[in-house]
Design goal:
4 copies of one chain form a homotetramer. Chain A is an alpha/beta fold and about 280 residues long. Chain A has helices at about 15-25, 45-50, 95-100, 120-140, 155-170, 180-185, 220, 240-245, 260, 265-284, and strands at about 5-10, 30-35, 55, 60-65, 65-70, 75-80, 90-95, 110-115, 150, 170-175, 190-195, 205-210, 230, 250-255. At the A-B interface, α4, α5 and α10 of A face α4, α5 and α10 of B.
């Protein structure tokens, strides 16, 4: 599929989708937008947008039923009666399983998830980490510089976040389970600890969690500093017992969707470049 | 003057003064507070506080006339009729010239400025730099990582800020005038440019100014990216022509008092440790 | 197999094996050594050593036939007539295929390669990178700080080496092929380029290659600076056309076995900890 | 004094002077050299060189009496009978006091020391630090990465060296005396300690000294690890009791003149740029 003469239609979404559309325009593609009337006048109707060749849905495509998520529009974009207009289109979204659930007739080889890609996840770790740092500054009265910080997990976000925190001058400990990850942490000049075996958990001023399982239970919470700031970056239900945290008076924040919150332009550009990469692979 | 058995009285101020009082308490000193009733119950009256041996005023001691700045109290602390109670006290403040103006009888060898000290300025550069980064994230839709950033000036704040920005992954250029500063910038692995000679000013996504003179005039502003974010950290009137910036549609923020805004606890602890250092020097 | 009461026999090898033996001793294991008489008196005979439970050969076990590599001994350790003594022993080496070739009766589940392990390769990248930097300093008249450096390949060695070079203040470009690796390079604040597509190859003062295929052919060599220093870290035959380099007057060094050359103690300790990890896995 | 049409004569010296001459040539100046016949054919006689307008001596100008230091020549360059040829020349050297001692008639406003300049000292800290790291690698069997390192003194060399060591992944502690220096060390993310108050001196694998006074006496040496590597960068007599070190079996190296030893080209270029800076100031 040659994308050069195709029309890209961006259907709803938050500011990330808005910037995604702008990135396509900047790169010289023909773009139709719908669902951004609160930001930009250049929106067309849903029907016009559905005539595009490549339809781009938000990361989470629907807010309810077959209604496209449109936080930046007063009008709703409802696909209830328009399923047939999706046939034979190239379709992108984040959670494509929601698309298949609502429109079981969609063909698997025409629907692509941009958020499943390694290149997306790597790049998206950056706005996530910057957002996590911003949350930390906004929710504490201290500087990160000079503070003792634990980053739980050494996946993409853990790697980027721990380097940034070190770059700001925090004293960073990173936890992981795999012995090779622990070796990487050490040779990168950071303190390492086995995830879960937090003998010194009471020394940390900030804890950032990236591990999507209940690592921080009541027992671990009870050993933390009372004025620790806990920022959970793991997708729901997260890695901390929020109820116990509340009971213990620990400030635990479930900080999700940070790229859209603090860096929607970068987040939109990351989606755009991922889509272009996927289209090139399909062409190639 | 042996400070060990002295009473420290913290007179008004913002959250920095509140945390300054807490830091003294934590370090075992006897402390009286007044003017924080919105935060803490342990306040005494102004008269009781003035019986302390060491009186600590806010950085900017008075909000009006002889009224102590008390943003955290519903009541005012007016020294109008109490000047005689200051005699023979050890007094700390930031802008001590305001104290001498209102109370010309104060003795020079009893009044100390904590904000004049090198150790204060060095340490205070940290919350300033973290605050500047936070302002940058909150006022733009992009990530700092991967962005082109200019830091104008390589004094204390310029040094700390440029290292932090690099640590986050920005592409950092730093400007200075002295050839030895330019050499330091280069050998620290940053790009260097002579302040004012900004041939490539149009490439920057963010500009942080620390130089307190009009470096960024209309002509320079007109060559910047239209979506640059300009953050001026220099004290009033700052280093940018704000009017021209507004005319040109450039987002220029005069970001002052960042330590108190984002990191009052660290800022208060820095004041406390500076006061203790000064007292030790006087003892020694 | 419980290793606690076992006897570890270190059979020949260079200083890495010597330090490996010392590391076992320091960790409280019973150790027999043979083949280090030039360094230490505490050697036993080959026959005594072969009575140990766990036999540890050098990375490259044999120098010739069944003769154990013994650069630190005047005597040779020949296993020609002693193959039967290896039966039922736990055996470690680097190139275990050489062991199986000489002693086909060895059981696969008793012979382990420590150099095949991820944990070994990650940790061994450190002495390799430090050695590469040392070779660069010793073979040039310039400082790395301020120089333009290309690191070809972003595997383990490329990752460690590029961070160290940046830490010294070099201006580092890293090449890779995978789009996710290129994303990592960029977000880590380094310049990135696709391996092989070196449009600016003429600007580099130093090139470090880690890719084991002929990336740097005559055509690429002819575009390099004449005073570039080329350090090839890829195993034989390396990634550069050494003959053409010589013809062009380019200083190209095939720098192999750097851990043993510059950091044998660390290299030996890495082997020891890898062996202990393997034994624990087998126990577990 | 306009330097544009002047002849620069480089008189003797080691490889730094050779590269200094090459740097002048590269920058378009007319250059005469004498005393490098072991490296280059383009040498002239001493008499021809003395006809230049600007005479450049080595850092340490004389090896004996009025004989210019010429480690790269078989012939000697003796000024014994040529003092009158120096009159009215612009003269550069490092230790200009040696020039004035031998030729008291020289005019103070015509003789300049390049090594006294801040810009020289800052830049020269780089080859010194790289050389110190190289000495550390060559004189130990360990990697710096992961090692515990003390850098004594936070002047120019201490600053550059500690950042480089951190960049390689060492665990760096820096000592200083001034409270503002200690604050800088801490906020740069390094461990700090007051010079001389080395409670944990027994933990370090490497100690680099930059302080030119006897900090490391017998008592301190006796508390060090027996296999510590001590590298003294302070000018003679250095900062360590070398005799006691030897008695205690501690490997203490007095590593001087590192820029000339490991990076003569960079060192020569630093001298050249310093001379050009001085000439511009004199012109200006």
């Amino acid at each position: 599929m040659k994308s050069d003469n195709k029309i890209f239609s961006v259907l709803g979404g938050d500011k990330r989708s808005y910037y995604l559309a702008k990135a396509f325009i900047k790169d010289g593609y023909e773009v139709r937008c719908t669902g951004f009337d609160m930001l930009s006048q250049n929106c067309c109707t849903l029907d016009e947008a559905l005539k595009g060749d490549i339809l781009i849905f938000p990361v989470i495509p629907f807010s309810e039923g077959k209604k496209i998520a449109t936080p930046l529009s007063k009008d709703s974009l409802d696909l209830e009666t328009k399923g047939n207009l999706l046939a034979d289109k190239i379709i992108f979204s984040g959670k494509t399983e929601m698309l298949f659930k609502e429109f079981p007739a969609l063909k698997k080889d025409k629907v692509f998830s941009y958020s499943d890609r390694e290149i997306f996840s790597v790049q998206n770790a950056v706005p996530t980490a910057e957002g996590a740092i911003t949350e930390a500054v906004l929710n504490s009265d201290k500087t990160l510089n000079g503070s003792k910080v634990l980053v739980c997990g050494y996946g993409r976000i853990g790697k980027v976040l721990s380097e940034m925190l070190r770059g700001i001058g925090a004293e960073v400990t990173v936890s992981a389970r795999k012995s090779s990850d622990l070796a990487w942490i050490k040779l990168n000049g950071l303190d390492s600890v086995v995830t879960g075996e937090f003998a010194e958990i009471g020394k940390f001023d900030y804890i950032f969690n990236t591990v999507p399982s209940l690592v921080f239970d009541k027992e671990k919470l009870s050993k933390m500093k009372s004025d620790v700031l806990f920022i959970d970056l793991a997708s729901k239900p997260g890695g901390v017992d929020f109820k116990s945290a509340k009971d213990l008076g620990i400030n635990a924040i479930h900080a999700l969707a940070l790229p859209g919150k603090y860096s929607p332009r970068s987040a939109g550009e990351i989606i755009e470049s991922t889509i272009i990469t996927i289209l090139k692979e399909e062409d190639g």
